Amino acid sequence: QVQLVESGGGVVQPGGSLRLSCAASGFTFSSYGMHWVRQAPGKGLEWVAFIRYDGSNKYYADSVKGRFTISRDNSKNTLYLQMNSLRAEDTAVYYCAKDPGMIRYYFDYWGQGTLVTVSS
Amino acid sequence: QSALTQPASVSGSPGQSITISCTGTSSDVGGYNYVSWYQQHPGKAPKLMIYDVSNRPSGVSNRFSGSKSGNTASLTISGLQAEDEADYYCSSYTSSSTGVVFGGGTKLTVL
User: Fold this and answer.
1) Between chains, do A111 and B34 touch, taking CB under 8 Å as contact?
2) What is the pLDDT of residue B97?
3) Residue A18 and residue A83 in contact, taking contact as beta carbons nearer than 8 Å
């Protein structure tokens, strides 16, 4: 069965950096686009970024453009999110989510999430 | 990207039907059939309930249905059950950013 397991969350100071990972199993990782979606405490969902199955195209929300970088290593079945210049408003649970195709703009499987707290 | 507009809360009694609306623009909901709906119970990851406006993934009850008219999409839940009580989010492709935009979420209470 499809499994997505995020890791790398924690507490970081404003202006700091953090790299999240998402280990995928149960499907052919290299054939599917992948997303990051976040949810601030008590708030709604916010799409963060998308990467095509082969890493050739990447798209970002305006709120993270220029600060976050999505990447993937298909040999390791792992998705990444490099987060730089972190701000208090980046505090959220970060979910990795599978796209059902090359890019279908919805999420058929989600991980359990990893909490990132930006605070001094 | 501006969020899609959903009512903050809806409620219904067991057995009844409810509808949650999701209003966007011609750049998202109205322009594409890439509307999806997610159910989220407290402390859990979201679960896909509807994709491409009206399609149900396997395993999702046929009590859940989706539709769209103009810039507004809708999720209808018929025969309400206690386990349907959750937060519901709509999302859509948006040409504004070549990405995805979510609604603010709707809390469904089963009375």
Assistant:
1) no
2) 79
3) yes
